[in-house]
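Take our chain:
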Amino acid sequence: MKKAMWRERIPGSIDPEFLKFASQEDLSLDENLIIYDIIQNEVHALMLYKIGVLDFESLKKILMALEDAKKLHSEGKFKLDLQLEDVHMNIENFVTEKASDAGKMLHIGRSRNDQVLTDIRMYMREKILGILEELCNVISELLKLADENADVIMPAYTHLQHAQLMPFSYWCLANVDALLRDANRLLETLKRVNVCPLGAGAVAGVPLPIDREFTAKMLGFEGIQENALDAISSRGEMELETLAQLNILALHIARIAEDLILWTTREFNFVKLGDAYCTGSSALPQKRNPDSLELIRARSMRIPALLLHTLLVLKGLPSGYMRDMQETKFSIISAMETTSEILKILAKVLSSIKLNKDVLEKTCQDTPCTLPDLAIFLSLEKKIPFRTAYNIVAALAKRIAETGTKPSQLSAKMVAEICTRFTNPPNISDEEIKNALDPQTSIQRRCHIGGTSSDEILRMLSDRRKALTALKNKISEFREKLNKTLEKVSTLVNSIISSEKTWRWNK
C-alpha cells in the first residue's frame, strides 16, 4: 500500500475511515487542479534550476515525468490515489517513480500550503474568465431580444401590480445593466485573484534564495502576495470574495428566471419558451412546464449557501494554516461549476423565447398604468396642484375598479365629475383625455436619460453594445496574455527535454 510521504513522522498507519473522511471528497475536487499542479511543478522545477538547486539532468528528468503526467491527464488516464491523499502528493509520487532521486528534489522550496493556494488561484482565474465569457453570451441574447421586440410594450410592476408601461426592451436593458455590473465586479476580483502566493512555504517563507518574481511571471500572475503569513492565512479570502460576486450574479439570474416563469403562466401568457426547454407531466397531459427556468431559479440559490458555508468555515480561525481551510475548495469549485452551468442554459433559454404580442398589446390597452400621466397632465396643463390632481386620479381609479370601466372609455365628463369633489372642474376634452392615457404616448413622454422613449431605448442599446464589446475585449486580452505566458512555459519545457546538451539559462 502506498503511503503519504509526510507520514514518516507519524508511526503506524492511518485509520482508513479517517483517510476517507479527510481526503476522499477533497481528492475528487483535486481532479480540477491536476493540470494546474503539473504546470506549477514545471515552473517550480525551472526556478530551482535557475537558482542552482537542480542540475540540468535532474531538471530534464523531472520535466519529462511531468510531461508524461500531462499527457496521461489529457487522455483521462491520470488517476489520483486516495492513499496519497491529494493531487500534490500524487503528482510528486508519479515524478519520483519516473525520475527517481531527481523527483525527490521537486518539493524543496515550498509547502503544500502555498502549492494548493497557487493551484486554486490558477483554477479560479480560468473559471472566472469562462464565467465572464458565458455572461457575455447571456447579455448578447438579452440585447438580441431587445432588438427583435423594440415595438412591444408591457406592464412594469411594483408589488406584482401594474405600475407603469415600458417597452419589453426596457426589461432586457435593465437586466443587461445588472449583468454588466456583475461582470465588472468579477473583473476586479480577477485582478486580486491573479496574485501569486507561491514561495510563501508552510507559513513564513523558505530557507532558500527562491526567485518568486520568476515563478509568478512564468505562471501568468500579475504580482506576488509578499508576506508569507498573510498569503497562507488568506486561503479562502479570494474564494470568499469571488463567492460574494457570484452570489450577486445568482440573485440577478434568479430574478430573470422568476420574471419569465410568471410570464409563461396562463394568467400572464406574455411569453412562450422553446419546446426544448419545457417538460410535460406524467399525469396531466395539458401541462407545459418551464422546468429549465425553475431549475435555474433553484440552482442559483446554491451560491448563497456556499457563501455562507465559506464564511462560517473561516470565522474565528487563527493566523496560519488550518485544515478547516480545505473546505473552501468545495465551496469555490462547486459555485463556479454551478454558475457556469446555469449561464450556459440561461443563454439558450433566452434564445428560445417568443413574445405573445397580441396578449401584451391587449393588456396594455386595458391597464390603468397610464392614469399617473393624467395626473401630470391635469397639473401641468390645467394648473391643478399636483397633489390635488393625484387625489382626483386616485378617485377616478377607484371608480374604474368599482364599475369595470376601461381607461380607454373615460370621458371628459367623467373626469370633470370627479374633479368637482376637489376643485373647480377644468375645461377638458375627450381628445385630451385620450391623448393623456395613450400607452405609446405615455412611453414616449419619458424621454429623460434612462427613460422609456424610443430615442432613449436606441441610445441605451447602442451604449450597451459598446459596453459589451469593451467587456469582451478585456476578457480576450486577459486570456490571450495568459495563454501566451503558459505557451512559453510549454515551449521552454519541450526545448529543454529535447536538448542534447546542457541547456543554459538565458539571462
Notes: The two ends are 45 Å apart (CA to CA). The domain at 114-152+164-203+225-356+458-481 is CATH 1.20.200.10 (Fumarase C; Chain A, domain 2). The chain has a mean pLDDT of 94.
